[in-house]
Amino acid sequence: MALAALFVPGWIAWSLISLWFLYRIVKGMIRMNDSRPMEPKDVI
């Protein structure tokens, strides 16, 4: 049980960060394919 208490929070954090990372890669590839900058000018 104590081992699960160590792995579960780390697994959740790793999963969330991985999903965010994949989202940024896909978003960047779509914008690059459209010949647009990574971020809109009003964000920077």
How many individual β-strands? Answer: 0
Give the overall pLDDT as a whole number: 86
Number of helices: 1
Q: What's the main sheet like?
A: none
Q: What is the string of SSEs from the N terminus onward?
A: H
Tell me the span between the first and last alpha carbons: 47 Å
pLDDT < 50 stretches: none
The Rg value, from CA coordinates, equals: 17 Å
The helix content is over 70%
Structural class: mainly alpha
Q: Which band does the percent of strand residues land in?
A: under 5%
Shape: rod-shaped
Structural write-up:
The chain is mostly helical and 44 residues long. 73% of the residues lie in helices and 0% in strands. The protein has one helix spanning 2-33. The protein is rod-shaped. The relative contact order is 0.08.
Summary tags:
mainly alpha, 44 residues, 0% strand, rod-shaped
Compile the SSE list and pairings.
Blueprint: H1 2-33
Give a summary of the structure in a few sentences.
With 44 residues, the protein is mostly helical. The chain is built from one helix and no strands.
